[in-house]
């Protein structure tokens, strides 16, 4: 009887965890992405901490360039604490229409691109009209990047963006700011 109570208790705990995880509404994306306007350099202003950027100490940027096949080349760079540059060259592809803000990105070698798990979701969830300030996340809300065309963002614009992201269910308290020392 005691084993049955334990099993029922575990089952209820798992059920509640699953139900809570599904409680968040799906992330809404930018409605119409104008890819040519999105191209160029973006400065990382803040991010959720993640394992693949743990060596980055400052000056993180992302450069997007249109390729002849319609995909985007992605060059991510950051300055490590030892003063050396860390770079990652990747590829991004739009999912859906030509105006879709739903992209996938991979930094694995091209010969592995047939494997679905080498592609990560890159969803543009907020973008101002001038294409100067953006927020990028993914369906599970485990990652978030704040990107800007300049290394410094006006505090009132940043606060307004934080309010919009919080309303989407993104925990902006987890964000860590990115230093830009080489302006």
Summarize this entry quickly.
The chain is α+β, with helices and mostly antiparallel strands and 183 residues long. It has helices spanning 2-21, 35-38, 155-167; strands at 40-47, 56-66, 72-80, 85-94, 102-106, 120-127, 133-137, 145-148, 176-177.
Question: Could you characterize what this model shows?
Answer:
There is one protein chain. Helix content is about 20%, strand content about 35%. It is α+β, with helices and mostly antiparallel strands and about 180 residues long. The protein has a single domain (about 25-175), classed as Calycin beta-barrel core domain (Lipocalin, Beta Barrel). The chain has an 8-stranded antiparallel barrel.
Radius of gyration: 19 Å
Please tell me the overall pLDDT: 87
**Strand content of the residues, in percent?**
25-35%
Classified in CATH, the superfamily is Calycin beta-barrel core domain
- CATH topology name: Lipocalin
Count of runs of 4 or more consecutive helical residues:
3
Beginning-to-end CA distance, first to last residue: 67 Å
Alpha-beta classification: alpha+beta
């Amino acid at each position: 009887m005691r084993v049955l109570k334990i099993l029922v208790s575990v089952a209820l705990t798992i059920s509640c965890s699953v139900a809570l995880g599904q409680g968040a509404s799906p992330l809404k994306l930018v409605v119409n992405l104008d890819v040519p306007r999105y191209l160029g350099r973006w400065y990382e202003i803040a991010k959720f901490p993640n394992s693949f950027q743990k060596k980055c100490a400052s000056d993180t940027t992302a450069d997007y360039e249109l390729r002849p096949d319609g995909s985007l080349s992605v060059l991510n760079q950051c300055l490590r604490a030892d003063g050396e540059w860390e770079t990652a060259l990747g590829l991004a592809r739009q999912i859906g229409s030509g105006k879709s803000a739903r992209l996938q990105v991979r930094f694995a070698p091209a010969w592995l691109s047939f494997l679905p798990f080498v592609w990560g979701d890159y969803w543009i969830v907020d973008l101002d009209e001038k294409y100067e300030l953006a927020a990028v996340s993914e369906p599970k809300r485990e990652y978030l990047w704040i990107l800007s065309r300049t290394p410094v963002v006006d505090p009132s614009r940043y606060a307004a963006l934080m309010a919009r992201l919080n309303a989407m269910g993104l925990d902006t308290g987890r964000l860590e700011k990115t230093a830009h020392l080489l302006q």
